[in-house]
Amino acid sequence: MLARRWGRRFDALTSDDVPFTRLRKPLHACRIALITTGGVHLRTQQPFDMGDSRGDPSFRAIPADTPAEQLTITHDYYDHRDAERDLNILFPLALGRELVARGALGSLGTGYSFMGHIEPPHVETLLRRTAPEVARRLRQEQIDAVLLTPA
Amino acid sequence: MGLVARVIEAAGIATVCVVGLREIAEQVRPPRAVHLKWPFGHPLGEPGNRAQQLSVIHYALAALYTVEEPGTILDPDWRWRREAYAEPSSWVMP
Questions:
Q1: Domain ranges of chain B
Q2: How many structural domains compose chain A?
Q3: Could B27 and A105 be called an inter-chain contact, meaning their C-beta atoms sit closer than 8 Å?
Q4: Rounded to whole angstroms, how far apart are CA atoms A38 and A139?
Q5: Residues of A in contact with B35 (CB under 8 A)
């Protein structure tokens, strides 16, 4: 049911063109960033706005060395109790750091968190403002590749 | 999430999305997607199941190198539970 409802909502966003960038570096030399749409944020950051049923198109930057205890999740539309117990199931910062430590990844850049299911008019803000701003920051930090996880 | 991935990819950075709803990925068309029909809030697996979480991360990162066709959605067909997950032995990619 959820898929059908979301599916309808996304009709207007159907696209034939898919942007594509090849990754040319070996993984052990890559600077990787994690992004989630699961509503994760630092306890000290402003929570996502759950009062607006059309969603909140803003993002939160999360430093790669943030301990899990300093993070929380604000999102009323899914059960995030398991993710709060073990954030690696949704936003695997700790596993990412471990992979860097053992030489599998080059390094881990600043992570970013959004809320999922953004509806008009906020989709426009996401597409024109907040997602491009994150892309700009990723480039500035010389990120090679991004792993994105949903709620 | 697919929309964010598309914006980042268009800026010249490779992306891979883990997705739970294939229908949405088919419409939004992120550059590369790994589809796992698992419960919401658990894109990389169960809490405490390190082998499962690392298996998904490994599979997704490998897709950064193996996917040739923009908009590809990969289906590992891994069950949520009762799948025997082992920690990936090598992270050398490509």
A1: 2-74
A2: 1
A3: no
A4: 23
A5: none
pLDDT computed for residue B81 by the predictor: 87
Separation CA A148–CA B23 (nearest Å): 17
Residue A113 within any structural domain of the chain: yes
* Coil, strand or helix at B66: helix
A 38-77 near B (Cβ less than 8 A): 38
Q: Is residue A77 part of a domain?
A: yes
Instruction: Work out whether strand A31-36 and strand A107-108 pair parallel, antiparallel, or are unpaired.
Output: parallel
| Nearest CA-CA distance, residue A86 and chain B, Å | 5
> pTM to 2 decimals?
0.94
User: Does any domain span residue A19?
Assistant: no
Q: From CA B60, how far away is CA B16, in angstroms rounded?
A: 6
φ, ψ at B18 (rounded to 5°): -90, 130
What's the mean pLDDT when you consider all of chain B? 97
The answer to whether the beta carbons of residues B23 and A11 sit under 8 Å apart is no
Residue with structure tokens 């390094």?
A107
Give per-residue pLDDT as tens, A72-81.
999 998 999 9
Contact A82 B93 (CB under 8 A): no
* pLDDT, tens digit, 9 for 90 and up, residues A94-151: 999 999 999 999 999 999 999 988 999 999 999 999 999 999 999 999 999 999 999 9
3-state secondary structure of B35: strand
- Chain A hits for B40, Cβ within 8 Å: 78-79, 151
In a domain, A15, yes or no: no
d(CA A75, CA A79): 8
Residue A124 burial by Cβ neighbours in a 10 Å radius (0-12, 13-18, 19+)? exposed
